[in-house]
Amino acid sequence: MKVSSSVHIDGSREEVWKVISDIEHANENISAIEKIEILEEAGESLEGLKWRETRKMFGREATEVMWVSDSEENYYYETLAKSHGMAYVSKMTITDDDSGETLTMEFHSTPMNFWGRLGELIFGRSMTTSLNKSIKQDLEDIKHVVERMH
Hints:
Elements: E1 2-9, H1 13-20, H2 26-29, E2 33-40, E3 50-57, E4 60-72, E5 76-83, E6 86-97, E7 100-111, H3 114-148
Helix pairs in contact: 1-3
């Protein structure tokens, strides 16, 4: 399953990065996130940062352990998670546009075993629709936070 969405933000690349890279306080910036617990601190970059995130998903509370696998300050970061027979990769990317920045979130999941493939087959279409709505709301929340900085 692959989902991608973008939002225009009236702000600088550095302002957008400041909000999206502040994982420890993501629950203050993204309405669906209820709790963040840092498990491993990162070094000078975001890479290696590991946390437990609890959020509302599909009308229920869901908790996942996630970590930053790759990043370039002020440009992007990529996270990984593995759960329920699936591997999840999400990437937040900031690109310049005519009057600010565009923030894009890409998400894709890959089944790691039989149960993951079965779940994707049964629930894939409905999960894609719900996930797309969730990603759009996360991006709108971030946009609102950045644009309030002015």
